[in-house]
Amino acid sequence: MSEVKISAEPRTAFGKGGARRTRRAGLVPAVLYGHGAAPKHIALPAREFAAAIRHGGVNTVFEIVVDGDTTLALPKAIQRDPIKDTFDHIDLIIVKRGEKVTVDVPVVLTGEAERGTLVGIEHDRISIVAEALHLPESLEVSIEGLAAGSHVTAGDIKLPKGTELAVAEDLLVAVINAAPDRRGARGRHRRGRRCRGARRRGRRSRVVRLLRRNFYGPCWGSAWAITI
Questions:
Q1: What is the superkingdom listed in this entry's lineage (predicted)?
Q2: Which pTM value belongs to this model?
Q3: Fold of 102-178
């Protein structure tokens, strides 16, 4: 994965009010830190940052230019507005060329398991250790032809050269389960409906008998007798 060059500007307005003004100007408040450097508060162009994340994922390495100085950085924490789907704040950690970092990477299942099975996802991301400038966007693992009862672990994933797992190899990623018998379920559903209908009819018949006994009383055929 190659780094994305992006120009930023120093940020002097802080607090909620300052952050709102920054976002209204089309920028995202961010802080740049790491490797013993003092935290640097900056503002990134929102559209450029969003485009880079959409294209390369959250593990995109940025070449950030501030006042002529260039720094390599990796998003450490991204805060989003869940309603507007915009970025509220970004924490960026400084990285060096050749340095190895630990990141979470999406796991993509390829192929199809046997017919009549359901695939249960246990972990859709796993932690790996890799060089900062060679982070994979995702990791693929095949479930082609797997039968019910099979499972996929982190150790089954083929890692790119220079990449190591940061989790146990037996970490469960996916489980192949047998799909439920729909015909049996439909039959049980119909039988259940018939039983419920019979119970309702039984309750109605008891209510009718009680009403007849209570309303008719000794006055069979009288004007106030109610026929159910």
A1: Bacteria
A2: 0.70
A3: RNA Polymerase Alpha Subunit; Chain A, domain 2 (2.170.120)
